[in-house]
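Input record, target 12 of the design panel.
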């Protein structure tokens, strides 16, 4: 803009200067021409007062050319040439004009000499014509004559134009350069700039709103990303990390900033290599990998540029360890259920086939019937436990009320008393009243399973003690037995489904392997935590503690 204004002012100044010079030269040439005409007129008038051949002889050395012409055009006298040898002048313009009007004037240019010859003719009283001629400069000659001063004036004018253009340009642009873009609406120097200033102010407000919105969106994104448990990575198409969240660092087990690094320097597993093969082909990618013993689902989607070409990837890393473990447990549970159901059904089928085919003696039918009854009861117990676990898995614990752990423990003891007495086991309940909010039937089943296990796996003439109370205001129930105990390597797994420490003993006493798993689920449903203490041959103590 500065250059344009400067060039505009300079060009305008030069054009103005040239126009003025042309005008001055024109005026000067006109003045010069008028002065030559006046001089010739005065000279002709003075000479015409005594215009005869004798009087004219005294002008033989005059600067001007003086010619006397008869009215028929013959030259009678010429102070610069022999009159007798001169041609007839009756066709000359100034001569004809003088004959008709009394005076005549003409200018003829000499291309050879580059000068003008001015002729002024006056008609004498006797009809002859006196002509006075003198040389005058042409326009070109005048310009050449004036060239030195013109050049000096042009140079001076050009320098002044340069200075003036520079000064005016700075003066014009200074208020514009001093516009406060943060407060453009305060500008008032040039009214012509008001629409422009208004537009700037409008754009500034729009940009500020956009920046505010972008900043808010960025803060929201950062807040969401940083509080995500999932790892988030944004990379270019070659795998260089552009941004990441804290969870990604935690997943990869590093603490330093990884922006700019290639993701393959963090993990060269097949999954991460395959990601960018798919991204380059604009394909979505999803797979499961292991990192530090954990299972993670890696999902990658391509990011496209304005030409719809892949320029990067958004990678989401989700911890699916629990899901994988659940899937593993589901598979194990399915296999175990199939096995556990198959065993009693196979026994029932075998015995029934023998009875059907008459292969059993009459006196043995009763024994086989008892076997069928025992296996059927075992099958029903197993199915009931599986149904109960399914209900617990599906959140079937919505019914809640205030229940007293001491009262329920006493009811369980009353229900199990005949079984305990039959095996010579003493079953006692001690402690104080402790209420929790839970489902009464489920709490009954939890304590029943604990006591039932304590009786089944007890020693002859052993004891089972149920203690109810509060520790620091938190209710608890403890079932302690004097049974066979559990070896340390098994204590972490006894709450798993179908896990048995001694399979032969469990089969003998009819256990399903689901009792403690049900206990764990019920306790967890109501915020309870289970603690197990046991020593091989010394008995087991299981405590379920609830929140206040």
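The sequence produced for target 12 reads:
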């Amino acid at each position: 803009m500065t250059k344009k204004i400067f060039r505009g002012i300079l060009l305008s100044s030069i054009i103005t200067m040239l126009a003025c010079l042309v005008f001055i030269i024109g005026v000067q040439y006109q003045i010069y021409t008028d002065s030559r005409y006046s001089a010739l007129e005065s000279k002709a008038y003075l000479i015409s007062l005594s215009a005869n051949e004798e009087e004219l002889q005294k002008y033989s050395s005059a600067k001007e050319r003086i010619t006397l012409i008869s009215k028929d055009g013959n030259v009678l006298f010429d102070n610069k040439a022999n009159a007798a040898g001169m041609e007839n002048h009756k066709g000359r313009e100034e001569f004809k004009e003088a004959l008709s009007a009394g005076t005549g004037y003409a200018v003829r240019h000499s291309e050879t000499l580059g000068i003008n010859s001015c002729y002024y003719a006056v008609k004498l009283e006797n009809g002859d014509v006196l002509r006075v001629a003198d040389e005058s400069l042409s326009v070109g000659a005048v310009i050449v004559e004036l060239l030195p001063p013109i050049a000096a004036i042009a140079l001076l004018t050009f320098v002044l134009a340069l200075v003036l253009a520079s000064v005016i340009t700075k003066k014009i642009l200074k208020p514009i350069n001093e516009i406060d873009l943060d407060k453009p609406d305060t500008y008032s120097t040039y009214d012509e700039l008001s629409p422009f200033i208004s537009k700037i102010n409008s754009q500034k407000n729009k940009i500020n709103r956009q920046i505010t919105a972008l900043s808010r969106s960025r803060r929201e994104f950062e807040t969401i990303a940083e509080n995500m448990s999932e790892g988030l990575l944004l990379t270019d198409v070659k795998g260089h990390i552009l941004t990441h969240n804290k969870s990604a660092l935690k997943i990869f087990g590093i603490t330093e900033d990884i922006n700019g690094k290639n993701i393959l320097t963090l993990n060269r597993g097949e999954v991460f290599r395959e990601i960018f093969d798919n991204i380059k082909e604009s394909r979505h990618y999803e797979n499961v990998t292991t990192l530090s013993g954990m299972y993670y689902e890696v999902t990658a989607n391509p990011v496209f540029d304005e030409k719809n070409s892949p320029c990067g990837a958004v990678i989401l890393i989700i911890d699916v360890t629990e899901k994988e473990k659940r899937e593993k447990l589901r598979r194990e549970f399915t296999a175990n259920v199939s096995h556990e159901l198959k065993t009693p059904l196979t026994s029932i089928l075998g015995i029934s086939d023998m009875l059907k085919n008459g292969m059993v003696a009459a006196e043995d039918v009763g024994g086989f019937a008892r076997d069928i009854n025992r296996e059927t009861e075992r099958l029903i117990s197993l199915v009931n436990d599986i149904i109960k676990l399914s209900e617990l898995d599906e959140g079937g614990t919505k019914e809640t009320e205030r229940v007293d752990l001491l009262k329920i423990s006493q009811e369980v003891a009353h229900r199990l008393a005949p079984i305990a007495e039959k095996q010579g086991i003493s079953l006692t309940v001690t402690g104080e009243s402790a209420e929790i909010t839970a489902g009464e039937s489920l709490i009954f089943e939890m304590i029943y399973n604990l006591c039932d296990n304590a009786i089944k796996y007890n020693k002859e003439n052993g004891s089972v003690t149920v203690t109810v109370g509060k520790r620091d205001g938190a209710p608890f129930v403890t079932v302690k037995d004097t049974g066979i105990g559990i070896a340390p390597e098994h204590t972490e797994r006894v709450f798993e489904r179908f896990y048995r420490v001694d399979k032969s003993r469990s089969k003998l006493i009819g256990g399903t392997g689901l009792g403690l798993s049900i206990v764990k689920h019920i306790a967890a449903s109501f915020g309870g935590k289970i603690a197990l203490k046991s020593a091989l041959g010394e008995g087991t103590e299981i405590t379920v503690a609830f929140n206040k």
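The first strand starts at residue 65 and ends at 69.
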